Amino acid sequence: MAVCVAVIAKENYPLYIRSIPTENELKFHYMVHTSLDVVDEKISAMGKALVDQRELYLGLLYPTEDYKVYGYVTNSKVKFVMVVDSSNTALRDNEIRSMFRKLHNSYTDVMCNPFYNPGDRIQSRAFDGMVTSMMIQARRGKESLVARAPGAWSPEEAAKGGAEDL
Amino acid sequence: MADPALFEFLHTEMVAELWAQDPDPGPGGQKTSLLVLEGMGFRVGQALGERLPRETLTFREELDILKFLCKDLWVAVFHKQMDSLRTNHQVQAPLRLPGTLLCPQGTYVLQDNSFPLLVRMASGLQYLEEAPKFLAFTCGLLRGTLSTLGVKSLVTASVAALPACKFQVVIQKL
């Protein structure tokens, strides 16, 4: 379930970064930052491979104990990084790919917006809405599995909630 | 289909509008209008560079990017392909390997023998002085698309006889 989505520009600075829950944001920012190295590694590895078709979707970049990080790079070297909570039912590859495709389409729309200057932070509400729907969809899915009091969701509370239900 | 005509009319009006507002018909005023047109083309090119490339990373070298410009970009905007793509060999590399494309300087000449924005004007040498203003937007378009795809370049256009025109793309190595 997407807990953090980031759009990184060609020059490796963030154009858009958003995470749920809002505490511990710095941890997600740091994870995205470290994942850029892995992205660069994958890109250069692809460049050396003599394959005709190279994928935009980079796949799982690296797993940590709580989260998995996925990457995607566009033809204009803009990178999308998604941090996904690995505690639940593992999201299938297809679902991650479709989420990245939606991100790519929304990013293209932002680029075509005449009021957007390439290189600025993305402030489009439509883009925000699309990212929120990706994150909330995941949250709603998780809440239907385990009954929990409404309120801020965080990994610690999720662990507590799970223990209480048992 | 009316689509190509829509863009042509819009472009004609853009050039006419920018030139009409020019109180000083001398070289200074003209340059600003040309810069504005080129800037517009640049922004459009940036957006197109994001939208057009296919779902896969297929640009392995500069030549691939130029071929993309000649085929996909030209077809999307002008509904026809570029007629020829040539490279200007300016060898600066000390080693010449047989069979490789020698273009370290990165100069390409894209030739279009019947450029849609010029085809309606004349066929021959009439209106040769007026032609450059109708090419500024397209130069910007090429530069913008190249810039999104990661290539810094300088694009100039030249017309020998309408409606054939040549776009010279010089790739600037950083």
Automatic annotation (TrEMBL), chain A:
Transmembrane segments: none annotated. Gene3D superfamilies: 3.30.450.70. The keyword Transport applies. InterPro entries: Longin-like_dom_sf (IPR011012), Sedlin (IPR006722), TRAPPC2L (IPR044760). The gene is TRAPPC2L. This is Trafficking protein particle complex subunit 2-like protein. GO terms for cellular component: cytosol; endoplasmic reticulum; Golgi apparatus; perinuclear region of cytoplasm; TRAPP complex. Belongs to the TRAPP small subunits family. Sedlin subfamily. It comes from Bos taurus (Bovine). It is found in: Cytoplasm, Perinuclear region; Endoplasmic reticulum; Golgi apparatus. GO terms for biological process: endoplasmic reticulum to Golgi vesicle-mediated transport. Keywords: Cytoplasm, Endoplasmic reticulum, ER-Golgi transport, Golgi apparatus, Transport. Its main location: cytoplasm.
From TrEMBL, chain B:
Gene3D superfamilies: Trafficking protein particle complex subunit 3 (3.30.1380.20). Keywords: Endoplasmic reticulum, ER-Golgi transport, Golgi apparatus, Phosphoprotein, Transport. GO terms for biological process: endoplasmic reticulum to Golgi vesicle-mediated transport. It is found in: Endoplasmic reticulum; Golgi apparatus, cis-Golgi network. InterPro entries: NO_sig/Golgi_transp_ligand-bd, TRAPP_component, TRAPPC6/Trs33. One of its GO terms (cellular component) is cis-Golgi network. It comes from the Eukaryota. May play a role in vesicular transport during the biogenesis of melanosomes. Belongs to the TRAPP small subunits family. BET3 subfamily. Part of the multisubunit transport protein particle (TRAPP) complex. Heterodimer with TRAPPC3. The heterodimer TRAPPC3-TRAPPC6A interacts with TRAPPC2L. Interacts with TRAPPC2L. This is Trafficking protein particle complex subunit 6A.
